[in-house]
Q: What sequence folds into this?
């Protein structure tokens, strides 16, 4: 089974050489004004911001503390000047690829010029995102210069003076360190378990927490004593990077003495991470210049009912969880029988469908549930989209629509669907 819902944009590899940490300008950059989270057009769980280049055209970006560098969509290359080089990078959840390197352009948030590293990269972000409007990823080459407060309850992103936080009620303080050659933020904490453990802080990770395999297995042994009410729901799948990982959905769990609902725990062989799903349960302040993180706790409950970051933020319902897993199994089964429009059985046999299938739309568990899944094929720029619908609780899942689009979401072809297929 594939990783059809969760992924993040963290970058590693040669990208590390492009962030120019050794030549940091220690003069503080101008502080941007408070902004609202950009409207989420895909029900995706991200910190979306609207930024712009010098021409003033609004561009949808993601703020990702798990990315060492800033990446722009390939469609912006004509305004970036000469390509300086190609570089090999590794998206931890998507695998390795080659990106183009350019001199960093002027990038603005509101009227404020953002401070970036000297170089940026370009990629086809449409293949990584369900949103055809996504034009960039703001990485730590930019974010490290700022004190950023994410306030999901208010739907705001605030940029604070890192040297003047006195008198603010910011919550529990955690010293920040920077791992991976000083690029990625991490804390040493007992937030989740009594023993202090190192965790990367990754706003591009859509789980509550990610654990290395040994720690993941050790903590699973304790789950019967930690979970409350209905027991956890588990699955295994092969992620986009080709690694077999496990996932646990916990309707209610006790974390270090405190209750937390709808907790999603992921196994990953890379590093332990605290993801945006957990951070969004609180008001979080990331003072990167002063290397401190603050959490204003919200008793483990999400801010979902307040319609904050996105319309579906943290509305992770067990019915929806089961639905998406079963829908992926349905699509893979149709592909295996050579009955999936646009995807031949040979594509599935080569692992292309199972490695690239991902979900487009997510809605709360209000019936009918409708989810659009997206598949891509090697050497084909098209996106193959499949709408799976479940009319009632416990009802049959059906393939209602199948169509092919280009990378920007324009419809190229509609496929005929046999009623009741599934």
A:
């Amino acid at each position: 089974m594939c990783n059809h819902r969760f992924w993040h944009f963290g970058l590693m590899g040669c990208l590390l050489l492009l962030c120019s940490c050794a030549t940091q300008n220690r003069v503080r950059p101008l502080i941007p004004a408070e902004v609202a989270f950009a409207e989420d057009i895909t029900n995706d769980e991200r910190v979306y911001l609207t930024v712009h280049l010098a021409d003033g055209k609004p561009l949808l970006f993601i703020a990702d503390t798990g990315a060492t560098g800033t990446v722009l969509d390939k469609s912006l290359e004509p305004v970036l000047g000469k390509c300086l080089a190609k570089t090999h990078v590794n998206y931890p959840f998507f695998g390795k690829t080659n990106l183009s390197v350019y001199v960093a352009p002027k990038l603005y948030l509101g009227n404020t010029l953002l401070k970036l590293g000297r170089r940026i990269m370009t990629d086809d972000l449409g293949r990584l995102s369900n949103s055809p409007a996504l034009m960039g990823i703001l990485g730590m080459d930019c974010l490290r210069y700022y004190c950023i407060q994410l306030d999901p309850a208010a739907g705001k992103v605030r940029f604070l003076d890192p040297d003047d936080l006195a008198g603010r009620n910011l919550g529990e303080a955690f010293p920040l360190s920077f791992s991976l050659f000083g690029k990625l933020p991490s804390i040493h904490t007992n937030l989740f378990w009594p023993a202090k453990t190192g965790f990367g802080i990754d706003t591009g990770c859509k789980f509550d927490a990610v654990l290395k395999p040994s720690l993941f297995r050790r903590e699973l042994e304790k789950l019967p004593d930690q979970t409350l009410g209905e027991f956890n729901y588990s699955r295994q799948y092969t992620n986009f990077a080709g690694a077999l990982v496990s996932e646990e959905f916990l309707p209610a769990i006790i974390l270090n003495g405190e209750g937390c609902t709808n907790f999603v725990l992921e196994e990953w062989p890379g590093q332990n991470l605290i993801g945006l799903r957990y951070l969004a349960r609180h008001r979080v302040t990331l003072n990167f210049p002063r290397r401190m993180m603050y959490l204003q706790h919200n008793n483990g409950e999400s801010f979902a009912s307040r319609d904050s970051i996105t319309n579906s933020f943290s509305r992770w319902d067990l019915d929806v969880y089961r639905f998406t897993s079963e829908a992926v199994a349905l699509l893979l089964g149709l592909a295996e029988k050579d009955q999936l429009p646009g995807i031949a059985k040979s594509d599935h046999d080569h692992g292309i469908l199972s490695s690239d299938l991902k979900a487009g739309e997510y809605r709360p568990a209000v019936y009918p549930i409708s989810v659009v899944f997206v598949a891509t094929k090697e050497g084909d720029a098209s996106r193959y989209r499949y709408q799976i619908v479940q009319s009632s609780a416990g009802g049959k899942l059906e393939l209602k629509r199948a169509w092919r689009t280009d990378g920007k979401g324009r419809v190229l072809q509609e496929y005929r669907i046999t009623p009741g297929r599934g």
About this structure: The longest helix spans residues 318-336. The chain has three domains: 12-158, 163-306, 318-415. Residues 1-9, 11-25, 299-317, 358-364 have pLDDT under 50 and may be disordered.
